[in-house]
């Protein structure tokens, strides 16, 4: 019998019956999955329950970031929730699907081996494969002057510490598509800057016009970091004045801006196969955050003879939307023989603890991780207390008050600089270890310390995170800012955007959140000097190795992990699995569930 609670539980599909009902009751399927499956099967006259189940499961898979449903793995992947449910037998399931009208026109579903796709993702994955194969199949770029290239490689990447980067740049010059992969501080940006100088010189030697370069990243914050880092590199004495003048000016933009946003669509852009981007080189940073859909749009917009440099760390969390594109490309393009690898392994930033810790996490070495957390030296701290609030208050409040003090004095520069010193990262938005709770906790600390009750949403020193692109205002998802008092007493919010420093009246800002704490997902693409990571409880489904790795690697200098040994062990033992077919398409291998290691 349906209880009162169930009637109000939006995850339950009360009209469902049979398998769909059983899977929904067990929590494997959400009501939305069941509704899509019920409507599609009804529309196309499909009565087989196992097909309806597969359809609901493929919708569920897409919701959690998979591009397809691997019919051979879904039962294991459902874990305890799936135990005792009426799973169809494998062969019968495949036969029912193959005979189903859902695989016929208008093809809402596509089946490939044992991978079941929603049509949109199938189309996008095939297009990405086709475009990448076509790019790799062309004759390689012509090197105008090998001797000059050799000399420039040794000038821009001078000594043995640059060996990996020199080799990566040499590889990238000689192919149309390069995936430049490496962990934090391995010198990816340094390599990009040197590579651009090499390409600009080669363009000059070939008598071509000035190289047209596009720098892009999935978020405004990541784009701004890329531009700043490349400019910083170009100031180094490895760059000659000619290198700098050959490259001229460039700005980094979000991928959406590069491709040209269209008011009528969020997934189609002004630049596409019929209106390609004009650039000779397109560099995309933080490619791990790029979804399959965005990669499809990017690949159709770049000219075949544009060098495409995809930069990123394949061990980080994948995109919020479906796909694990960077990890698939790192494996698929190289293993498939389409391109040569350009991988950087040596960290130059943290000579020490954080880089070593990140490697131990990536390689799933729990004993080493725990030893490093407990005896990691000055840069790594492990807070294992049951109630860490007092420890955190003592550690974090001085930084929070420094932002407030600068903001109260109207000093936006210092307030923003102080904001970059520290990030408090949570896995979840809600719950005891979530962003909401910790934002309120920090606000309570401020009140206790200053007697300011912080009645208003907008208060002096309120740090904010922009949560949606606002093209009118020129601020983008991921930009951060601080609320500062002006001399006339009014408040202005100063935001570090990829267009530079902007300030607004608080009333103009809609999509912002308080930034005393933020989610690890939202922190992708940014870093802070010091990072505190609040590990969720062991029961959290978000707790994965990739989440932990991404959180740690947001720290430039110091990291503090707050949680239990059990939570650390659970995180290491669990990978964020996404079913995709891109790697197999590029290598010609069989289906498998995609892990990111
Ligand atoms: N070969 C090298 N020898 C010494 N220092 C280097 C070398 N390459 C880069 N660095 C320095 O190491 C730091 C990290 O380099 P870079 O920013 O290029 O790495 P990255 O992989 O882009 O980092 P992240 O992804 O974390 O932003 C920089 O301060 C850079 O100047």
UniProtKB/TrEMBL annotation:
Heterotrimer of RecB, RecC and RecD. All subunits contribute to DNA-binding. One of its GO terms (cellular component) is exodeoxyribonuclease V complex. This is RecBCD enzyme subunit RecD. A helicase/nuclease that prepares dsDNA breaks (DSB) for recombinational DNA repair. Binds to DSBs and unwinds DNA via a highly rapid and processive ATP-dependent bidirectional helicase activity. Unwinds dsDNA until it encounters a Chi (crossover hotspot instigator) sequence from the 3' direction. Cuts ssDNA a few nucleotides 3' to the Chi site. The properties and activities of the enzyme are changed at Chi. The Chi-altered holoenzyme produces a long 3'-ssDNA overhang and facilitates RecA-binding to the ssDNA for homologous DNA recombination and repair. One of its GO terms (molecular function) is 5'-3' DNA helicase activity. It catalyses: ATP + H2O = ADP + phosphate + H(+). It holds the Pfam family RecD_N. HAMAP family: RecD (MF_01487). Its EC number is 5.6.2.3. Belongs to the RecD family. Residues 26-117 form the RecBCD enzyme subunit RecD N-terminal domain. Residues 515-562 form the UvrD-like helicase C-terminal domain. The keyword Nucleus does not apply. Keywords: ATP-binding, DNA damage, DNA repair, DNA-binding, Exonuclease, Helicase, Hydrolase, Isomerase, Nuclease, Nucleotide-binding. ATP binds at residues 182-189. It comes from the Bacteria. One of its GO terms (biological process) is double-strand break repair via homologous recombination. In the RecBCD complex, RecB has a slow 3'-5' helicase, an exonuclease activity and loads RecA onto ssDNA, RecD has a fast 5'-3' helicase activity, while RecC stimulates the ATPase and processivity of the RecB helicase and contributes to recognition of the Chi site. NCBIfam families: recD. The keyword Flavoprotein does not apply. The gene is recD. Transmembrane segments: none annotated.
């Amino acid at each position: 019998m349906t209880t009162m609670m169930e009637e109000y539980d939006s995850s339950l599909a009360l009209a469902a019956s049979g398998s769909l009902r059983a899977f929904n009751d067990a929590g494997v399927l959400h009501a939305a999955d069941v509704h899509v499956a019920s409507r599609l099967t009804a529309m196309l006259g499909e009565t087989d329950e196992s097909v309806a189940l597969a359809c609901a499961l493929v919708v569920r898979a897409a919701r959690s970031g998979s591009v397809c449903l691997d019919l051979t793995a879904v039962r294991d992947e459902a874990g305890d929730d799936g135990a005792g449910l009426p799973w169809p037998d494998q062969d019968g399931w495949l036969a029912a699907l193959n005979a189903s009208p859902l695989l016929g026109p208008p093809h809402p579903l596509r089946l490939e081996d044992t991978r079941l796709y929603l049509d949109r993702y199938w189309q996008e994955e095939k297009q990405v494969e086709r475009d990448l194969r076509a790019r790799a199949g062309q004759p390689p770029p012509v090197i105008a002057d090998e001797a000059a290239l050799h000399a420039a490689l040794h000038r821009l990447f001078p000594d043995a510490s640059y060996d990996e980067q020199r080799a990566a740049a040499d590889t990238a010059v000689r192919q149309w598509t390069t995936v430049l992969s490496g962990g934090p501080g391995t010198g990816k940006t340094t390599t990009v800057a040197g590579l651009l100088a090499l390409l600009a010189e080669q363009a000059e030697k070939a008598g071509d016009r000035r190289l047209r370069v596009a720098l892009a990243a999935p978020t405004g914050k990541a784009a701004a970091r890329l531009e700043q880092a490349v400019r910083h590199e170009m100031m180094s004495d490895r760059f000659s004045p000619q290198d700098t003048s050959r490259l001229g000016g460039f700005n980094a933009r979000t991928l959406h801006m590069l491709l040209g946003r269209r008011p009528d669509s969020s997934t189609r852009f002004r630049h596409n196969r019929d209106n390609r981007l004009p650039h000779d080189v397109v560099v995309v940073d933080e490619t791990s955050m790029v979804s399959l859909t965005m990669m499809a749009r990017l690949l159709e917009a770049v000219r075949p003879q544009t060098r495409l440099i995809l930069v990123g760390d394949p061990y980080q969390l994948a995109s919020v939307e479906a796909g694990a594109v960077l990890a698939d490309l790192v494996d698929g393009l190289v293993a498939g023989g389409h391109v040569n690898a350009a991988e950087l392994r040596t960290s130059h930033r943290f000579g020490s603890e954080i880089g070593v810790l990140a490697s131990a996490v990536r390689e799933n070495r729990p004993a080493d991780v725990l030893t490093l957390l407990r005896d990691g030296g000055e840069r790594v701290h492990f807070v294992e207390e049951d109630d860490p609030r007092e420890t955190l208050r003592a550690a974090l409040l001085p930084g929070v008050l420094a932002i407030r003090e600068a903001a109260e004095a109207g000093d936006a520069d210092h307030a923003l600089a102080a904001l970059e010193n520290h990030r408090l990262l949570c896995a979840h938005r809600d719950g005891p270890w979530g962003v909401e709770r910790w934002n309120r906790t920090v606000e309570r600390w401020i009140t206790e310390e200053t007697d300011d009750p912080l009645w208003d949403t907008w208060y002096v020193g309120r740090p904010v995170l922009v949560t949606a692109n606002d093209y009118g205002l020129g601020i983008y998802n991921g930009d951060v800012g601080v609320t500062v008092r002006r001399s006339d007493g009014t408040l202005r919010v100063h935001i570090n955007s990829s267009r530079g420093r902007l300030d607004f009246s608080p009333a103009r800002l809609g999509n912002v959140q308080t930034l005393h704490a933020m989610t690890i997902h939202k922190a992708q693409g940014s870093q802070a000097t010091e990072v505190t990571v609040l590990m969720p409880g062991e029961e959290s489904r978000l707790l994965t190795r990739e989440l932990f790795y991404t959180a740690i690697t947001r720290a430039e200098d110091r990291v503090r992990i707050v949680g239990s040994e059990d939570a650390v062990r659970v995180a290491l033992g669990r990978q964020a699995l996404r079913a995709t077919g891109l790697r197999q398409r590029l290598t010609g291998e069989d289906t498998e569930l995609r892990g990111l290691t």
